[in-house]
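On clarity, I found the account of how folds are encoded harder to follow than it need be. Since the whole study asks how a given chain folds, the encoding of that fold should be made plain. The format is easy to grasp once an entry is in front of the reader. For illustration, here is how one protein appears when written out as sequence plus structure tokens.
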Amino acid sequence: MSAAAAGAPGRIRIIGGSLRNSRLQVPTLPGLRPTAERVRETLFNWLAPMIGGARCLDLCAGTGALGIEALSRGAASVQFVERDARLAQALRDNLARLKVAGGTVAALDAGSFLQGQPQAQDLVFLDPPFAQGLWAPLAQSLEQGRWLAAGAWIYVESPRDAGPVLPAGWQLHRQGRAGEVHFALYRRSLPLS
């Protein structure tokens, strides 16, 4: 259930790692769609062997639940990118309140952020607002802008019936559905030498 549907500021639970059962305070904003607990649990079960020490990018971070879950489970760093100033501030507040190291927040549009100086990431969370159709342009910017390490993992969340167009070098590793959401984990193909 979204925070807006609850009618009051929401709280999202971190489900694993050092911050297990910690609660994120989330402002009530129209269109905010946090990744469901059971989807996060499935995703991080898939990521368990590779999350420790990973450099992560949480694009269109929203509540930051995916990135904070990654930090809780041993990721070395997470760069959160969120264009809404209220969500970006709430994310900073949650990181400070939980005393989480390794997380930085950029209050920018994801497309603008990806025009900046690239830092190769091991794991990217790509979960843009569904109504904006940003999967293809953001995926191309990640790929062409040298934001992905060789063999990087990319998590993509989209509407159940919409198959986003992604770069040819992203190989589907695992996928699932929950309600109206399709979620998938891709691996960037290593270049042939």
